[in-house]
Amino acid sequence: MSRVRVLVGTRKGLFILTADGKRQTWKVHGPHFAGWEIYHAKGSPADPNRLYVSQSTGWHGQIVQRSNDAGKTWETVDNKFSYDGVPETHQWYDGTPHPWEFKRVWHFEPSLHDPDTCYAGVEDAALFKTTDGGKSWTELSGLRTHRTGSQWTPGAGGLCLHTIIEDPKNPKRLYTAISAAGAFRTDDGGKTWKTITKGLNSRYIPNPTAEIGHCVHRIALHPSNPDTVFMQKHWDVMRTGNAGDLWTEVSGNLPTDFGFVIDVHAQDPETVYVLPITSDEKHYVMDGKLRVYRSKTGGNEWQALTKGLPQKDCYVNVLRDAMSVDKLDKCGVYFGTTGGQVYASADAGNTWKAIVHDLPAVLSVEVQTLAR
Amino acid sequence: MIRVELPPHLRVLANVKGEVQLDVPSPVTARTVLDALESAYPVLRGTIRNRDTLKRRDFMRFFACARDLSLEPPDKPLPERVAKGAEPFLVVGALAGG
């Protein structure tokens, strides 16, 4: 029987949640790396026992942990993320030039094909790659040195590269998203990059349709249809049918189109999940109700999913890396909150229950679907 | 032997209990002590000093002999009692938070 493993990064450690394919009874393992912030943890699709974990604190900086046995044992690997060449400057909050400085890894994206190959998205925004299981990291500097790089500005959370997607049908193609620069695509394995922001409209920047400056919160795609990409922007839910060359808004009937997470059903490329957040000022769900919204039409028409979720007095946020889906026949959907709950649905969002209630604030949720 | 006391997170990371004892070539300075520490425990690279610049991380402090040595030049000799192993060199996480 299949199993699922959920990797939960929190403000104070990593937790690993496991269940069989029914997803009714869960075991909680952890905390691993107690007291450290775990911005992200993710397993290799090519070897599910290989895990990469971003461990950091403001005191001690960045540590990278790797496991070869699904988290039973860990080893530290290289934590040196040196920008290629002499890093120049990006724009600071006040518009002045600011030198690129490494702060932390926001996101690891293990290769679909090789457990020793993994991408790292870091703050200040840059993309790194290892091909030796994390023993060394090399910057794919074509992104940071993009002609617009000197104009990139940080969002409230920093100038972070937080989303990396490898096209499952074209290993030379990667998508990345950066707050608050925008979205980018390479078609040559990371050497050169183009902005993919045409069609975005952001009211909070001087020119709402500028090439850069859009605070993209998250992008997602379905492996069977990788040219169709969905985006949760600071405000607005968007989609493209041509790999980002042109976006259209699909916020439709959402009660608010601010939010962080977005994900796609494992079996149906047109079923999409978002979790609306009241506004950028409030950063908690609307009306005290925790509601996932699902569209079965690729956007525009959204249905609130509430069964099993708190519908009063709830004021949590769900951060950009904190939603994931499993690949079982009845697609499982998972998300974690800043209140420390991890909710799971074993029926594609129709019903929900909390796997755990009282973890530290959840920063990331990743699901692995295991053969047995 | 030079005695170094690490903050709790770094003791866990380095898998040590209590003080660390290090052979440090003369002159005994913050730089030579940290060089020896990172050589003995490579996992600590980047956790006390920036990996590229070797500058002290903002929230790390160095104390010894009831003095805050954090802002001293890294090549300045440490107090004699530290160099003789009579007192530890303290690596401390700065107080932060409410």
List keywords for this structure.
heterodimer; A: 372 residues; Methylamine Dehydrogenase, Chain H; four-stranded antiparallel sheet; 30 strands; 0% helix; globular; B: alpha+beta; Ubiquitin-like (UB roll); five-stranded mixed sheet; 3 helices; 19% strand
Describe the protein's architecture and organization.
The complex is a heterodimer of chains A (372) and B (98). By secondary structure, chain A is mainly beta. Chain A has one domain: Methylamine Dehydrogenase, Chain H. Chain A has no helices and 30 strands. Chain A has a four-stranded antiparallel β-sheet, with no helix packed on it. Chain A has a four-stranded antiparallel β-sheet with strand order 4-5-6-7, with no helix packed on it. Chain A has a four-stranded antiparallel β-sheet with strand order 10-11-12-13, with no helix packed on it. In chain A, β1 and β2 form a beta hairpin. The N and C termini of chain A lie close together (5 Å). Chain B has 98 residues and is an alpha+beta fold. Chain B has a single domain, classed as Beta-grasp domain (Ubiquitin-like (UB roll)), CATH 3.10.20. Helices cover 22% and strands 19% of the residues of chain B. Chain B is built from three helices and five strands; from the N terminus they run βαβαββαβ. Chain B starts with a strand and ends in a 5-residue tail after the last strand. At the A-B interface, β6 of A face α1 of B.
